[in-house]
Write a structure and sequence with these properties.
The chain has helices spanning 15-18, 21-30, 33-39, 103-113, 162-167, 213-218, 231-250; strands at residues 42-47, 64-70, 88-94, 114-125, 146-148, 159-161, 173-181, 203-210. It is an alpha/beta fold. It has a six-stranded mixed sheet with strand order 2-1-3-4-8-7. The relative contact order is 0.13.
Length: 263
Amino acid sequence: MHDLIGNAEPTSKSPLQTMKQCSKSIQRRLADPNFINRYFVGDGIDIGGEPDPLGLYTELFARLKSVRTWDLEDGDAQSMSGIADDTYDFVHSSHCLEHLHDPHAGLLNWLRIVKPGGHLIILVPDEDLYEQGVFPSTFNRDHKWTFTIYKSHSWSSRSINVIDLIRELGPAAETIRIEQLNATFRFNLLRYDQTLTPIGECAIEFIIRKRTPEEVQAGGRLPRQTAQPSPEMRLHYNQYRDDMNVLKESNVRKPPFMNDGEL
């Protein structure tokens, strides 16, 4: 296996950060209403955000009020000492978890500081898209772990399954999304750090919602609304139900998808 990139000496900042990994995600996230309406809502913290913080793009997310950038000078990203439980509406971290000595402990503390009902939005490099079969990493020597969504066996001796990592967080962690970001990855290239390009993400993005104590006790996120909606809204909801009933009545003794007669 050949490398196009040499073994550069490590710097104080992650090359994945200097490659603007957070900035690369913005256009993709703006196309998903959940980031605007659910994930980036209220007051958040961006762990390991320098030199490409989420706060640069605050005005693009209409319900985002503020983002605090937490980096080396602020303290240990693994323990988040000094940050009280249930402080932030959301926690964002782009390519920081792989630098921690204990990613499990770090993720537990990130979940600790987010409010019930809030979200963790986490990016980590995918071991096959970024390290590409070589560890310790030749692209970033400060990487202490590699990540994959799930494998029963990995080429990396320091591989972490994201599914297992989330499972270990306990019942308060509701998995919303796990995605390998490979849309701009060129699988036909020889081994090359594709995060050097303007479009390469080479990452896994996972989103966790912190369940409320009531949801943990109930064993799930159950409907909370007890008051009836307004008469105007009831007209529409009842019409949906009436339309379905009419459709069923008109198809009595006519099983669906059995009529292949000519039109």
